[in-house]
Amino acid sequence: MEDTPQFAQMNSFLFPFLGSLLFVALHVVIYFLLVRHISTRKSLTRFYSFILWVNLAWCILYMFMRAYIVAPKWIFMLVSISVGVAFSFLIAALIAGLINGAFILLKRAHLAPRVKRYILALCCVYSVYAVYHGLEDPKIERLSIELPKLTAPLKVIQLSDVHIGGLMDEERVAKIVFLINQEKPDIITITGDLVDTSLANANNSIELLGGLRATYGSYYVLGNHEYIHDVEDILEKIRSVGIRVLINENTTIGAPALVNLAGSADIMGDRLGFLKPDFEKTLAGLDENLPTILLTHQPKVINILPESLLKKADIMLTGHTHGGQIFPISLAVLLQQPYLSGLHKTRTGGYVYVSEGAGFWGPPMRAFSDSEITLFEFLPQKVAR
């Protein structure tokens, strides 16, 4: 493999700095559209403004805490939630701005402060719900799918987007391992964004993943987030606990062989210039008498693959989207990805499945999305249910 580029080495400062600038901009917008004239009482407006700027400080602290600061879990929880609150308040501010504009046109501007307070209150309730739902254990999502050329039933677990680091700690990883092993799968597949911190912070959690048990083993492909950390060390650690890393390669599973399992590097590699995806190589030399499962992190790969390669995959297992994680931020994901979640047909007649992920990125919040571990029961066509 190639050396980790300078971009990834600089991530510990560059990403927090750029993220902090983004949060400054968001909070300025929130101030002018929502907080600035939220009440005719100056003391109340000052109170809301104080909360807003404290939230901004926590957002900035969160961005640098992920890279530099080791803190008690409750502190990390607090600053993590501030990130979700910022995006929730932004939506509230945009709604308030539209309503305020309508009131001005209708010459009812005096109603705007009260409506803003109602919107803010609803936003707070929504944020509390999102935190509660985001911290719940992943559910087991079960699907039965028939695969052509499959000769015997096959139970495959997909684990995606755990984002080990911060609040996704050893306790939560141990719970995930327990839930998976309860299902007694034949194969465990891990479709990227497993680690979202340096190896030093993730080492113990990865050790726990060595406890995963499956008849034919566990297999992992890169997500985009591993690229911005010490990816080479992370890959080596994953291998050391008995999980096979697939980087633009495939293997046959079973004795006798049951299925081709192919795994590609993530398309983030094209942007960074190392560990690039090579789909030709990934899907080369497949046993044509077996069905093929393709592991790749981002669902938009279906739009990148030429038809000649796409038709080789009977099913693609992907993640990345988190199901949007928090509505309506989820709508922005659809500007980049073809699907948010679930099972879909490809243009060549195969399937693509988009996992909502077992973890979360940033705030421990989910609204209109679920943390999931997916259990596929692949069946020969003649016995499919």
Brief characterization of the structure:
The chain has helices spanning 6-35, 42-65, 73-105, 112-134, 170-182, 199-209, 231-240, 268-272, 279-282, 301-304, 307-310, 330-333, and strands spanning 139-147, 154-159, 187-191, 218-221, 243-245, 249-253, 259-263, 292-295, 315-318, 342-345, 351-354, 372-380.
Can you tell me about this structure?
With 385 residues, the chain is an alpha/beta fold. Helices cover 43% and strands 16% of the residues. It has a 6-stranded mixed sheet. α5 links the parallel β2 and β3. The longest helix has 33 residues. It is elongated. It starts with 5 loop residues before the first helix and ends in a 5-residue tail after the last strand. The model has no long low-confidence stretch (mean pLDDT 89).
Structural Rg: 23 Å
Number of strands: 12
How would you write the strand order of the largest sheet? 1-12-2-3-4-5
Label the structural class.
Answer: alpha/beta
* Head-to-tail CA distance between termini: 43 Å
Proportion of beta-strand residues: 15-25%
Helix content: 40-55%
- Global morphology: elongated
H/E series, N to C? HHHHEEHEHEHEEEHHEHHEHEEE
User: Helix count, per DSSP?
Assistant: 12
Mean pLDDT: 89
Low-pLDDT segments, ≥5 res? none
Largest sheet: 6 strands, mixed
Give the tags.
12 helices, elongated, 385 residues, single chain, alpha/beta
